[in-house]
Specification:
heterodimer, A: Rossmann fold, nine-stranded mixed β-sheet, two-stranded antiparallel sheet, 6 helices, 13 strands, B: Butyryl-Coa Dehydrogenase, subunit A, domain 1, globular, binds flavin-adenine dinucleotide
Chain lengths: 266, 389
């Protein structure tokens, strides 16, 4: 099996909003200096999904990331988990992309990798939570995609995929090659192992630019973006505390229940 | 241009990986294991799975071979979260696996290392005896060669990883005769945990490292095959000194990691605790405590990494290892003291991680050479008149 995973480097999602500054002109969120960049959590689960498939069926796991040079660290992390090779898409022309131009660039890179059976993405990136790049890549490659996946089984050139629904899951059968976006229900990703780290440190991560992935410069980065951020701001959250009194526990509980119903929480 | 403080990519990735593991797997259970005084087989196996056993052993024996500095960084990251798990790993690598790899013959390496590196079993190092602590030379456990077996009689005390269900083999230092010059001949023997005549009793009621296994061992005509001799007959004393030199670096790593952990908790707490309308960290007396901690941690790290660098570059490192162990453990003493002080009453409660760190620190000034013994070792090597003792 030839398996490709797309991963994104993001500021640690555990970081509180107060640690970010907003540049209202450039419409960019600037994390505090000591915010560590990490792999987007759903993407780490996409790597896990690919590695589980490799454990079961054999093959090769290739990881791609479009981002800053620092994203090499994220790629090395995936190599330490057990991925076989990794490539970084880095070029000034890729800067300030939206979902469309990101999907286009990644699809071009996937074509450059060549053979593939399944492309794995996270269900959404842990920073902007748009969740569109996966489907965009599939569209660009002209292959089927299944989103929000928790389990994938391959047999006879087809994949049987469990897709998470609000109240359960549905089973989808899809021909290969296909793209899946992986959800947290897949289970915990494995840890990087020290042996994996030794192997990862010996590998280099080649960097590809616009030309090398055979992309048109008008379609990547800001030039290829079809959406515009109108305003970027940190929303103000307000909370209010109301104490409910009651003669006894039952009365207090029923008042609470009525109140919750009133504000449509139950 | 030779001086360079950059860590390698492997070393940085090791720190990141072990920190991630420790935060997710150890932090959530450390308090409970401490409270129950429970050694966790499950957690030990998980640590083995990511490669924390056999850190300095080649892959052909199942090791992860990450190099000594990376190993030290791994122990540091474990100790940042929990002293007990750091102790299990440090003792297993430095005192158990280390001597078997360093001094064992090919057959012994092949027999023991793969199972030790996979976490199937643990190895322990039995030196200390009830009557022989700092004065290791006065040990009384004897092994006599009868036919093709060594027959061991005596006892050992305070032996890490020696009395749990994972204990597989114990390296036992014993008197095996007299040398030509009349001095005692000391050798090390590999004693399987299930050897007849060996009784291991878990020592309970520890103040610190409560989730690490400590055992007391009794040898009553305990017989092991002659081939279980580790290295050469009569090399035991030298093997012990060399093992302790290396082991001290991992105790130092526990001091450094523990200091770092206590420092981070102290900063977090002092920034969020408000008294007199201000975070307590904004009072200069408290900020200066934190500044002192940061300063000493920086010094401790530089000293320890330099000692590791000496080892990895095959230079003499005995004195620097003694200095690093002494300094890092005493820095942690001061760091946990400050950290508890900054936590006020809460720092004395078991619900706060810093309370456990305060207790766990105490061993570091005692195990593998007390601070007094380490000062003796340093004093003997700085050109002062007489033999400091
Ligand atoms: C949790 C734990 C785990 C351990 N794990 C192991 C293990 O895996 N393997 C192993 O072999 N041992 C192990 N030990 C034993 C440990 O190394 C000894 O406790 C240590 O060497 C000190 O010996 P002692 O306890 O007999 O103290 P003593 O040697 O009796 O020392 C008592 C005090 O006297 C001081 N003192 C002694 N001699 C001198 C001197 N000449 N000058 C000045 N002061 C002196 C000491 O510094 C100390 O303050 C462990 C101990 C503990 C508590």
């Amino acid at each position: 099996m030839n398996l490709i995973v797309c991963v994104k480097e993001i500021p640690d999602p555990e970081t509180p909003a107060s640690a970010f500054a907003i540049d209202p002109e450039a419409k960019r969120a600037i994390p505090a200096k000591d915010t560590p960049p990490v792999i987007s959590p759903f993407d780490e689960q996409a790597v896990e999904a690919a590695l589980r498939m490799k454990d079961e069926l054999g093959g090769k796991v290739t990881v791609l990331s479009m981002g800053a040079p620092s994203a090499e660290k994220v790629l090395k992390h995936t190599l330490s988990m057990g991925a076989d090779e990794a490539f970084l898409l880095n070029d000034g022309a890729f800067d300030n992309p939206d979902s469309t131009s990101t999907a286009y660039a990644l699809a071009q890179a996937i074509k450059k990798v060549g053979e593939y059976d399944i492309v794995f993405c996270g269900r959404q990136a842990g920073d902007f939570d748009a969740g569109q790049v996966g489907s965009g890549i599939a569209e660009s490659l002209g292959i089927p995609s299944v989103t929000v996946v928790k389990k994938i089984d391959v047999s006879d050139g087809k994949a049987r995929v469990e897709r998470v629904l609000p109240d359960g899951y549905e089973v989808v059968e899809v021909s290969l090659p296909a793209l899946v976006t992986v959800s947290s229900e897949l289970g915990e990703p494995r840890y990087a192992t020290l042996k994996g780290i030794m192997a990862a440190a010996k590998k280099t991560v080649p960097v590809w630019n616009t030309q090398e992935i055979g992309a048109e410069s008008s379609k990547v980065g800001a030039s290829g973006a079809r959406t515009k951020i109108q305003k970027l701001f940190i929303p103000v959250r307000e909370s209010k505390c109301e104490m409910l009194e009651g003669e006894n526990e039952e009365e207090a509980a029923s008042k609470l229940a009525l109140k919750l119903r009133e504000v449509k929480l139950i | 241009m030779a001086l360079n403080f950059d860590l390698t990519e492997e070393q940085n990735l090791t720190r990141q990986a072990v920190r991630d593991f420790a935060e997710k797997e150890i932090a959530p259970v450390a308090q409970l294991l401490d409270e129950r005084e429970e050694f966790s087989v499950e957690l030990t196996r998980k640590m083995a799975e990511i490669g924390l056993l056999g850190c300095c052993v080649p892959e052909k024996y199942g090791g992860s071979n990450i190099g000594y500095t990376s190993y030290i960084i791994a122990v540091e990251e474990l100790a940042r979260v929990d002293g007990s798990q750091a102790a299990t790993i440090a003792a297993a690598n430095s005192l158990g696996i280390g001597p078997i790899y360093q001094f064992g013959n090919e057959k012994q390496r092949e027999e023991w290392l793969p199972r030790l590196c996979s976490g199937d079993i643990l190895a322990a190092f039995g030196l200390t005896e009830p009557e022989a602590g700092s004065d290791a030379g006065s040990s009384q456990t004897r092994a006599e060669l009868r036919g093709d077996h060594w027959v061991i009689n005596g006892s050992k005390i305070f032996i890490t990883n020696s009395a749990c269900s994972l204990t597989g083999v114990i390296i036992v230092q014993a008197i095996t005769g007299r040398r030509g010059d009349g001095k005692l001949e000391v050798s090390c023997l590999l004693v399987p945990a299930d050897a007849a005549g060996l009784t291991a009793r878990e020592m309970k009621g520890k103040m610190m490292w409560r989730a690490s296994n400590t055992g007391e061992l009794f040898f009553d005509d305990c017989a092991v095959p002659e081939v279980n001799l580790l290295g050469k007959r009569g090399d035991g004393f030298h093997q012990m000194l060399s093992t302790l030199d290396r082991g001290r670096l991992s105790i130092a790593a526990m001091g450094l990691g523990g200091s770092q952990g206590a420092f981070e908790l102290a900063v977090q707490y002092a920034n969020s605790r408000v008294q007199f309308g201000r975070p307590i960290s904004s009072f200069q007396v408290n900020a200066f405590k934190l500044a002192d901690m940061a300063l000493e941690i920086e010094l401790a790290r530089n000293l320890l990494y330099k000692a590791c660098w000496l080892l990895e570059n095959e230079r003499p490192f005995t004195v620097e290892a003694a200095m690093a162990k002494l300094y890092c453990s005493e820095v942690m003493h001061r760091c946990v003291h400050h950290a508890v002080q900054l936590h006020g009453g809460y720092g004395l409660m078991k619900d706060y991680r810093v309370e456990r760190m305060y207790r766990d620190q105490r061993l570091l000034e005692i195990g593998e050479g007390t601070s007094e013994v380490l000062r003796i070792i340093i004093a003997r090597n700085i050109g002062i008149a007489g033999r400091a003792m």
